[in-house]
Amino acid sequence: MKWLRSALCCVWMPCVAAGCALIHHDSAPYAEIAPEQIALADNIHLAREGWPAARWWTRYHDAQLDALIDQALSNAPTMVIARTRVAQAKSDVELVKTGSSLQVTALALLNREHVSAHGFLGPFAQNEPALGLTGPWYTEGIVGLGASLKVDIWGKQRAQIAASVGVSNARLAETSAVELEISTDVAQLYYGIQTTYQLIDLLNESHEVAAFAVQAHEARAARGLESRTLLEEARAQQLAIERQIVSAQAQIRQFRESLRALIGAGPDGLPAIEPVALPRSKAALPATLSYELLARRPDLQAMRWYVESSFDRIDAAKAAFYPSFDIKAFFGFDALHLADLFTHASQQINLIPGLYLPIFDGGRLNANLSGAREGSNLLIEQYNQAVLNAVRDVAQTGSRLEALDAESELQKQRIESLAFARDSAEAHYQRGLTSRLAALEARQPVIAEQVALLTLDGQMISQEITLTKALGGGYHAEPPVEPRPR
């Protein structure tokens, strides 16, 4: 093919220079982001190192979570849409490929016609049987096989196929990105429910203390031992706790409805979620990000495939400036009388090589090339920004996890200090040195701080899932695509 292309180039170059459309202007492609910009700051560290596993959620050893994510990845409408887009892209690839292969068509035509006396077949408008003319009406029949083949000398068709393949690969990577999005969203909602379950337990414990305080103050006020002010203050605290419980229960219902919509479940399709303890943090950061992050993020791989596809479209746009060749052929039978259709004399063979020169099409071709180039440059800049955003997401989430871990340790120490005061009040009550009300009320500050610790734990698991998403959730392109600017 190379020698043929060289020979044709020598033969047709004068023609191209004299009459074919010329490329007026084509700018250089924009530069992709430098690898050294894909790095974390040196002051961000976590206790563990490494990338997420493919089924990262199984590290929590929670059968309920595993079942919910598996259900979502199978039935979620978003996943169905993503798979449909992949199937559509594969169909587009096959459609483009057919344009470069030999096309063969069976043809059968029946034509009842009246021949014009003033047209090219004017003599056949006469009715003279002696001469074989039985006009002016004829029933023409054509039966045969037609074939066509485009000769892709300049690689236009190959570039179009490569561009379609690039889009198909991008859609596959996007499907992995959707899987990651769904799995992390399900995990976020699930642990939101679990955190709220534990919050309700702490609020119920606090409510028991508040209810006892109301009863105690009510009894004292009834005996005139204290003013009603203390009773109303205790009742106000009890009502505030009840309001928090109602709000938390509503939050669980909202989480469940969001989860049900996410996994595509019907009214009764979401199983009951039983309370479990929140897992310990298992967050990890790789020692270095660099180029590895590009292979680990499915969204970035999808964008890289789109950029590569845009380069192939530029190649196709450039190839359109050169002459194009095709070959058409026909073999069959053609007769003006059906009785003569399948006779040897009615055989017809056509072989038509074609040459097409884009002489006066320069404006459209240049506009097409310019559009392809600018579209490619836009994709490159969007890709560069996406890489920077990905590094930012990892850095911010890792930094936030570090801070939450430190806050959690301090909060635990604070609870230990308050627990000492609570235990002391309980010991005084057991020795008859203080009232039961005082001993119970000493629990309230501890419960309040346990709620604060629970909030930190919930934030930590949420940020850990966010970090997993930022690191690609176990996705790994083998090998990652490396766009080749043209």
Blueprint (SSEs and pairs):
Layout: H1 2-19, E1 48-49, H2 63-75, H3 77-98, E2 103-114, E3 127-128, E4 133-134, E5 137-151, H4 156-222, H5 228-263, E6 284-285, H6 292-296, H7 298-319, E7 324-335, E8 347-356, H8 362-430, H9 436-441, H10 443-470
Parallel strand pairs: 1-6
Antiparallel strand pairs: 2-5, 3-4, 5-7, 7-8
Helix pairs in contact: 2-4, 3-4, 4-5, 4-7, 4-10, 7-8, 8-10
TL;DR?
This protein has 486 residues and is of the alpha+beta class. It has a domain at 24-100 and 158-309 and 375-470: Outer membrane efflux proteins (OEP) (Up-down Bundle), CATH 1.20.1600.
Notes on the structure:
The longest helix has 69 residues, at 362-430. Strands 2-5-7-8 form a 4-stranded antiparallel β-sheet, with no helix packed on it. The chain has a two-stranded parallel ribbon with strand order 1-6. Helix content is 59%, strand content 12%. Mean pLDDT is 88; it is low at 1-18. The protein has a domain at 24-100 and 158-309 and 375-470: Outer membrane efflux proteins (OEP). Helix 4 (156-222) runs antiparallel to helix 10 and helix 7 (298-319) packs antiparallel against helix 8 (362-430). It has 486 residues and is an alpha+beta fold.
